[in-house]
Automatic annotation (TrEMBL):
<keyword id="KW-0675">Receptor</keyword>
<keyword id="KW-0808">Transferase</keyword>
<protein>
    <submittedName>
        <fullName>Calcium/calmodulin-regulated receptor-like protein kinase 1</fullName>
    </submittedName>
</protein>
<dbReference type="GO" id="GO:0005524">
    <property type="term" value="F:ATP binding"/>
</dbReference>
<keyword id="KW-0547">Nucleotide-binding</keyword>
<keyword id="KW-0812">Transmembrane</keyword>
<keyword id="KW-0418">Kinase</keyword>
<keyword id="KW-0472">Membrane</keyword>
<dbReference type="GO" id="GO:0004672">
    <property type="term" value="F:protein kinase activity"/>
</dbReference>
<feature type="transmembrane region" description="Helical">
    <location>
        <begin position="6"/>
        <end position="30"/>
    </location>
</feature>
<keyword id="KW-0067">ATP-binding</keyword>
<keyword id="KW-1133">Transmembrane helix</keyword>
<dbReference type="InterPro" id="IPR001245">
    <property type="entry name" value="Ser-Thr/Tyr_kinase_cat_dom"/>
</dbReference>
<dbReference type="InterPro" id="IPR011009">
    <property type="entry name" value="Kinase-like_dom_sf"/>
</dbReference>
<dbReference type="Pfam" id="PF07714">
    <property type="entry name" value="PK_Tyr_Ser-Thr"/>
</dbReference>
<dbReference type="InterPro" id="IPR008271">
    <property type="entry name" value="Ser/Thr_kinase_AS"/>
</dbReference>
<dbReference type="InterPro" id="IPR000719">
    <property type="entry name" value="Prot_kinase_dom"/>
</dbReference>
């Protein structure tokens, strides 16, 4: 009896041990498969840190000068994953991006054998194309024998395959045939913001429109920083990379230099455009969201002053800041093309915001979410003032009627108008 009991105990013990070993092995296999799946997913959507300097349709080439030096392919510190995708792997990722692939011959016909040039950037020429569907698009072609441009091409396709917002340029397709690399975008009929600020062919932008453009760009960047998962750093915000549609709505373009925030932010070489580069990025070689904020601040001052960094914009701003103390008195830098037709309060509010954005200390700069709220507040106050002005004549008419029915001496209409305006100015804001 004792022998049977002992055998039973031994058998149960062995069974428990075998079960535990099998359970541990199964758990290990499950974790291994999950890890492989996560790595595969990360690899399929990760954008490499690739520089691009193309300015899009109707670009202003004077602003396309970027810093020299190539960022060499290297590995990221994130999960030990390779930063650069190469060869067959890179092509398969592009194919899986969800962006349609166009046949070379179709784009050749649509551009009349690539003769409809509308712009020229560092990436290569940009063509206007009329598709057989009736749709008008812009085709950006990679410059011949440009290895750097090929990396730029891969990044734009991979990133824009997952980024969708009304204030970002839409990539509708790409082409990889006959040794050519082309990107197909929605056609932005009013070209770049730079062309409107600096080209003699374009009429000057009104002040009201400049504020709306600033808000559009801010919303696009806010989406990249706070709406995209993982967040995306644009890394080349400038007036030449802001495109305008037929309604003059602004969209952020050119994502070849962009990278996901999760990718190692340290760079061996500084990439971007002189004049727009964050001083803290230059010294630390670490690009952050606040580096995009700095570039956006420079863009705001471009909209206010109508001059670019290559024309001494920031020196102009710093001289003005001595008198304004960063708050009021910014009218002295207003674009002369505005002919004085602008709202002084709006200009001072926007300039004060821009000055916060270019603070040399990144931590003192506002976030893009704060910037969107500030610009939205400027436009809200504009509408409020317009409604008050519309209501003013009605009030005066009622006063006039009362005066006709009374022989009591009352102040003149002009005096009343002055008092009404003063009361509006002194009224507490909501």
């Amino acid at each position: 009896m004792k022998g049977v009991s002992r055998g039973l105990i031994i058998g149960i013990s062995i069974g428990v041990i075998i079960g535990a070993v099998l359970a541990i092995a199964a758990l290990f296999c499950i974790r291994f498969r999950k890890k492989r799946a996560q790595i595969g997913s990360s690899c399929s959507r990760r954008a490499a840190t690739i520089p691009i300097r193309a300015n899009g349709a109707d670009c202003c080439t004077i602003l396309s000068d970027s810093t020299t030096g190539q960022e060499s392919p290297k590995t990221s510190g994130v999960n030990g994953m390779t930063l650069w995708l190469d060869g067959t792997k890179r092509r398969s990722v592009v194919s899986a991006s969800g962006i349609p692939k166009y046949p070379y011959k179709e784009l050749q016909r649509a551009t009349h054998n690539f003769t409809t040039v509308i712009g020229q950037g560092a990436f290569g020429p940009v063509y206007k194309a009329q598709m057989t569907t009736g749709e008008t698009v812009a085709v950006k072609m990679l410059a011949t024998n440009s290895k750097q441009g090929e990396r730029e091409f891969q990044t734009e396709v991979i990133l824009l395959g997952r980024l969708h917002h009304r204030n970002l340029v839409n990539l509708v397709g790409y082409c990889e045939e006959k040794g050519k690399h082309m990107l197909v975008y929605v056609y932005m009929s009013n070209g770049s913001l730079a062309s409107h600020l600096y080209s003699e062919k374009q009429g000057p932008l009104s002040w009201d429109l400049r504020v709306y453009i600033a808000l559009d760009v801010a919303r696009g960047l806010e989406y990249l920083h706070d709406g995209a998962v993982p967040p995306v750093l644009h890394r080349d915000i400038k007036s030449a990379n802001i495109l305008l549609d037929q309604s003059m709505r602004a969209r952020v373009a050119d994502f070849g230099l962009s990278r996901e925030e999760m990718v190692n932010p340290h760079a061996s070489n500084i990439r971007g455009t002189f004049g727009y580069l964050d001083p803290e990025y230059i010294s630390s070689k670490t690009f952050t969201k606040k580096s995009d904020v700095y570039s956006f601040g420079v863009l705001l001052f471009e909209l206010i002053a109508g001059r670019n960094p290559q024309q001494g914009l920031l020196e102009h701003v710093e001289l003005a800041a001595i008198n304004t103390e960063g708050r009021v008195g910014w009218e002295e830098i207003a674009d002369s093309h505005l002919d004085g037709i602008y709202d002084v309060q709006e200009l001072n509010d926007m300039a004060a915001l821009a000055y916060k954005c270019i603070n040399h200390s990144a931590r003192k700069r506002p976030s893009m979410r704060d910037i969107v709220q500030a610009l939205s507040r400027i436009i809200k106050l504009r509408h409020s003032r317009k409604h008050q002005r519309k209501a003013l004549p009605t009030t005066l008419e009622e006063v006039s009627i009362d005066m006709d029915h009374s022989e009591i001496h009352t102040p003149t209409a002009a005096h009343l108008r002055g008092e009404s305006i003063d009361s509006i100015a002194d009224a507490p804001e909501d």
